[in-house]
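STRUCTURE:
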């Protein structure tokens, strides 16, 4: 098959406009996301719950490195039968309501910022640059890559290494991630693929968890039982004598070695 020769004007009127449009849309999406971002205030009850569970778990795992008296004082704070922290009554957080207007508003914002621009720009490129072959990858590809790299160009005789205008747009969507990170920082909203993936995985994660918050009563009870049965054994008992004994042994061994030499 004869080699194709592309018009040099395609570089100025097809390739660069698609790159520039994709880049500018990502920048605009980032700042629109910042404007539409809601102020999520931290829930003090959830923070207190997580911090208490973390402190109790650290005491169970690392309590052997503190003396018994210090360990028992901390365990008394958590497990005292009268006013211990883990024995206090804890109310479970309410289950999230999928019909909550706030949640529906956030989903609409995500669709507006992430999905709508991709549909609009993709339709504009298919309508404006339909049938254009933009570039060619510098290595041979198999026939299976034609569906990915030649969207909108239905030519069975065309080599799979050529890239159509529509496929060039999607390559830019994935390829500009590093540029967005360099300009806007690591946590940016310009990466459209990541934003869509997060939006699609959020309902799945909520469904897998049953849409229910952790039961604080059961969690505190389980942690209380786990901390109650811990048998404390100080790992640093007589560590000074052990250290001095090892030091003396090493010194004696060195002296004998010097005498032998």
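SEQUENCE:
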């Amino acid at each position: 098959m004869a080699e194709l020769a592309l018009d040099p004007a395609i570089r100025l009127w097809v390739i660069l406009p698609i790159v520039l449009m994709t880049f500018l849309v990502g920048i605009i999406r980032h700042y629109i996301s910042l404007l539409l971002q809601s102020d999520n205030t931290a829930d003090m009850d959830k923070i207190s719950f997580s911090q208490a569970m973390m402190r109790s778990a650290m005491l169970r795992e690392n309590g052997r490195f503190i003396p018994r008296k210090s360990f028992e004082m901390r365990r008394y704070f958590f497990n005292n039968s009268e006013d211990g922290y883990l024995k206090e009554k804890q109310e479970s957080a309410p289950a999230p309501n999928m019909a909550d207007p706030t949640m529906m508003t956030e989903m609409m914002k995500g669709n507006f910022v992430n999905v709508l621009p991709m549909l609009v720009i993709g339709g504009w490129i298919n309508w404006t640059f339909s049938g254009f072959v933009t570039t060619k990858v510098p290595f041979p590809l198999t026939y299976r890559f034609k569906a990915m790299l030649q969207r909108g160009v239905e030519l069975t005789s065309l080599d799979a290494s050529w890239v159509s205008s529509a496929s060039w747009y999607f390559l830019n969507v994935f390829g500009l991630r590093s540029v967005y990170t360099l300009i806007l920082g690591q946590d940016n909203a310009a990466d459209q693929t990541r934003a869509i993936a997060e939006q699609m995985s959020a309902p799945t994660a909520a469904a897998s968890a049953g849409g229910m918050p952790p039961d604080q009563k059961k969690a505190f009870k389980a942690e209380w039982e786990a901390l109650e049965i811990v048998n404390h054994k100080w790992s640093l008992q007589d560590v000074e004598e052990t250290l001095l004994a090892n030091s003396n042994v090493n010194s004696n061994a060195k002296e004998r070695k010097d005498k032998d030499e």
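REMARK: The beta strands are 133-136, 162-164.
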